[in-house]
Amino acid sequence: MKRLDGNNRVAAILAGIVVTMGALAWAAVPFYSWFCQVTGYGGTPGVASTNSSDILDETVTVRFDANTAPGMPWEFRPVQNEMTLRIGETGMAFYEAYNPTDKPVAGTASYNVAPDLAGYYFTKIQCFCFTEQVLKPHERVEMPVVFYVDPDLVKDSDAGRIRNITLSYTFYQTELPQTQASLSPAQTPDYN
Question: Is domain 43-177 in CATH 3.40.50.970, yes or no?
Answer without folding.
Answer: no
